[in-house]
Amino acid sequence: MAGEASGSPFTVACVQFTAGPDPEPNIAVVSDLIRRARDAGADLITTPEASNFIESGEKRREKARHEADDPFLDAMRELARETGAWVLVGSLVIDPAGEPGAEPGENRLANRSFLLDPQGGIVAKYDKIHLFDIDLPNGESIRESNAYRPGKEAVFAQTPWGRLGMTVCYDVRFPHLYRMLAQAGADFLAVPSVFTVPTGKAHWEVLLRSRAIENGAFVFAAAQTGEHTGGRKSYGHSLIVDPWGEVLAEGGEGTGIITARIDPARIAKVRGGLPSLRHDREFTPTPRESNRLAAE
Fold it and tell me: Among this protein's residues, is 103 annotated catalytic?
């Protein structure tokens, strides 16, 4: 059953930028934006999916590093220590070879999110579960499962203000994941993303607001924006949404930051007035087809 956030109000920021194919320039841009967010009073700062780089094909694999020696992660850990902020690194392209539990012969990468505390420690990490395999109407074809192995575990972590559920991008289309996180006590839901333009225009805001409303939780969604290597375009429009579905901040299409003041007491108020998390019921997971008409 969902718990109640008990932390004091805080400020969250979402970083929005256009990741290039090499980590070093991305480190410089994101570091500047995180410092700006901290100067603006942000206590928790979130970055988008694939913050370290966006690349395709074999070049992606060549540039991927192990978690222990990834330069972007090292820079973000140092930045957390420098600023004294909590930092959610939306996700990084990571080479998981040699990690405990790695399957023999598996050569795909991990799309991994990291939550860092103000001392630069890794509080939690999450590998994206749902992978985006699709042929878009504009002719663009995306096959994440060719490059990435899917995660296997839902993850939430304790922060000073409440519990944060960690997800990534395409996960947002699978509401049962968010329900599970909320039922486990998540008060805030992170959805760092590289959302495509066609699907972004149609679905981005409505999906994020739905996940907030369904679960009575705040949603923090830092997004990539603009055109990347190979002509891929990201929608942008980072969002911060409150538990009633109200959009507190929206990032538009440019590089920058958005911030919002978050009062965790709002969660208990919304869940108390609309207690659907207490009304979930068990049922047979496989639908039974009625044969009444056939019998007639």
Answer: no
